[in-house]
Structures are given as C-alpha cells and as structure tokens.
Specification:
Blueprint lengths: L3 E6 L11 E2 L2 E2 H6 L2 H4 L2 E6 L17 H14 L6 E7 L1 H15 L6 E7 L7 H6 L7 H6 L4 H12 L7 E7 L7 H5 L7 E4 L16 H10 L7 E4 L10 H6 L5 E4 L7 H4 L4 E4 L9 H12 L3 E5 L13 H4 L5 E2 L3 E3 L5 H7 L9 E4 L13 E4 L5 E2 L7 E6 L5 E6 L14 E7 L3 E8 L2 E6 L12 H12 L4
Parallel strand pairs: 1-4, 1-5, 5-6, 6-7, 7-8, 9-10, 9-11, 11-12, 12-22
Antiparallel strand pairs: 2-3, 13-17, 14-19, 15-16, 18-21, 19-20, 21-22
Helix pairs in contact: 3-4
Subcellular location: Endoplasmic reticulum; Membrane
Keywords: Endoplasmic reticulum, Membrane
Main location: endoplasmic reticulum
Length: 479
Amino acid sequence: MNQKLILFIHGLGGRGEETWQHNSSGFLDLIKNDENLSTQYDVGYYEYPTTLFRIPFFSQAPKIQTLSDGLRTQINNLYSSYTSIVLVCHSLGGLIARQYLVEEIQNNKVLRIEKLLLYAVPNNGAQLASIAKFITWRHNQLSQLCKKSAFIKTLNEEWARLNVEEQIDIKYIVAGIDAVVQEKSAKSFWGNQRVETIVDKGHINLVKPTSNDDLSFVLLKNFIDQTRSNVITFDLSHGQENWDSYKEFIDGFSEEKLEVKSDLLNERSQIDRSSVMFFAPPFESQILDREAEYIKTWVYEGGGLFLMGYYAADTHHGGNPSRIAREFGYSFGDDLVAPNDINKNKIRVHVNVLDDKYAVKLEVEDIDHAITKDVNKIGFISSCTINTDFGSRELVLTLNSPSNSRIWDPEGPIGPKEYKRRTIHTWNVRETASVPLLIAFEYGKGRVVLSSSWKITTLKYGDNPQLVKNIVGWLSNTD
C-alpha cells in the first residue's frame, strides 16, 4: 500500500467508479498502468446517494452539507492510514469537497488533503440546475446547485475568508463544450490562474479519458505526479532579485531551472517535481507560515533545500529566513561573523562588498564528504551564525569558522509594522569563537543545506563555485 491516495468524487446522478470510466478504460486503468503514479498512489472512490430527478414521496437526496459529513467519515476511517490525499472531483463532487475543506479549516483540523482537482465544477452554481428544480420535486442537491443559492453564496464567502486557495494546491478544469456548467462558474472567479481548458470535451466525457495522451488524464498526471526531475527551483517570490548580483548568478546557472517570481504556493505543481530549491533570504518580504510548512513537507518527501541566511538575518531588510529554518530545528542569528582582523570601522565595508579580503576563509581539504569533494579553500562573507536553539537534527556535515573569528551584534532600533527591519547605528563585538557557517542534514526522504550567507553563491573565492556545484549534487541525491 502506498502512503498517498487519489480519492475520486462523482457528480450529480453519478456513481463511484462508473463516472470515471469509458467502456473498459478510464482513470483507474490509466493510473494503474502509469509507472510513476502507480508507485505513488492508491485509488479510492467516495460514492453517495444522488439522482438527476426525484419522484414525489420517495426519500430525499441528502444535502451537500450531509454529503460533506459522509466524506469526512470515510476519510477519517477508511483512509486514516494515508498521509496525503488528492481529491479529484466532478461537478457536484467538487462542491462536496470544497464544503468539506471549509469545515475542516473552520474547526482547525490538520489537513491531509494535499491537492484538489476540479473537473467542470459549478463553483458559482449551474444554470440548468435553476431550471431543473422546477421539473423535479424537492430535490435538495439541485436546489443547492442553483445560481445564487444560499449554499453557493455561503460556501464562496467562507472559501475566500479562510484563504483556502493558499492552503492547498488546486486546479480547475473547464470543458469547452459543457452544456451543464458555464465556463465562468467552472473557473470560479475572474482572473483565476489555476485554470485549464479542454476545448473539445463536454460535461460527461471530460472525466472519461480513453488513453494516456487524453488531456483529461494528462492534466491529472501533471498535477499530481511527484516524480522528481533535475529542475532547480529558485525562489524569487520574496524579493530576492534585489540582492546585488544574485540574479546574475541565477542567470548564469547552466542547469534546467524554474524561477518562481509571483506566488510560491501557486507554483506547487511544478516545484513538487523539481529536485532542488535555492531559497535566499527574503528582501523586505516575509515567509508565511503556510509557505514554511509546505517547504518542510516538500523536503520530507524527497526535495533538496538550499536555505541561505545573511548577516542580521531576521532584521536585515525585513526578511525572516529563520521561519523556514525553525521547521528543521535551527535559526539564523541576528549578528555578523567576520575575520578577526576586521574592526568596527571596517564592518560597514565588509557587509557591502564581495571582496574576499573581508571573507571568513576555511580550509576543508581533510573533510571527506560529497559536498567538499575537490574543495580545498572556501570563503564566507556577510555571514550570520546558525543556531540550534530549537533542537537539532543529526548532521552529516558541519563547516565551522576559524576559532579566532569575531561575532558582532548590531545596535539600532527595529522598525514597526509588518517588517522587522533594523536601522543599524553601530556594531558591538560579542566574542571570538568558532561557529557553524554551513551545515547539512537529511530529513525524511530529502536533504537540507543551511548556509550562513547567500553570498556563498556569488563570492568568487577559492573553490566556492565547486562547493555550490557539490551542494546541488548532494541535494539532488546524485552523489
């Protein structure tokens, strides 16, 4: 049994597996025959009572809220052993899933739903449902599906208020010739960037793929397949392009890369398939809790994270790289590590240049590790300490500064509002000590390297370029 589950939820008048099949073919067979998906996911179905029409005096169709409760019961009992679940929904099934997610978040539950795929879901109601309610008798589900129904209005209000879109990965699929759900309703809201359209599909055959190159299946596979490629992700969504020379380093990177510039969580589908993520400290931007939690999960499932700090890490230019570091038991210090011969008058120069005469220099030729292979001399500049205030993990490599290095503490007021940016008036020497400048450890199936400065990527000293190359190789699990 795999640790992940694809749970299919059919629509109005549908049935468990039948909805997703075309004759003898369909999603189940295509998933089973896909080498990557079959080794990652098991498949399940949520089936519930539903009909297109209701005969008077026969039992009523359960309301969507009741169907959502049933979904919760099934997930909590039949599927309790799965660590991650993908909900794949058709039509009404998408509203059931959305109602379930809203209630889970309202009740502060830990979500095991990793992704949500919505095929032709009437997120703003369906026009045909508004007509059908007049020709079928007291049909609860059709009434709630109507445009401007109280249920649709409340669901969308809570969905927006709780920021559900930012907590899980979602994809909306539109059928180009859908006669049941209008395009605007399937897209959910104007300007939605998470939408794909299959122009030659209708409401029913949208979820009945006939081959592995059928777009309905290809979209599912691309959305949930977490088989990693050699793509290197660079997070630029937190202003990192503003660090001097960092973008030049990225532009010169020869390997296949993904630059995330707008919203980190909106790019999860692509990031999930990349092998390494470079995360330089934010520049006048804050890492959100849900972003840090996502990165932690991404590493646990096999990703390689290169997380970099900077001097006065969490008060310099209002960034907070420690928000991610704390997920693994570490933090970056609000300080500066400098060579012993740097005095207070040279500190300001030290933090603004890429001159190796201001760098803390290490000799590493006696360390036997993939990260230090063919590496003899490296330099760190504008570094902070790496602290283990929150407990630490078993390290596979630690590179310490020379014992005569100095640690300096900034002095000056920290600004109010959302960014804790410090105005540094002066620096005060704290101690002379050897401290970690780079550490590496394994976490779950993944790996992490913490660097005390992002300038390890741009300082052209000794074997720094080889060190960065080795870090990428180790994080990619190719050592």
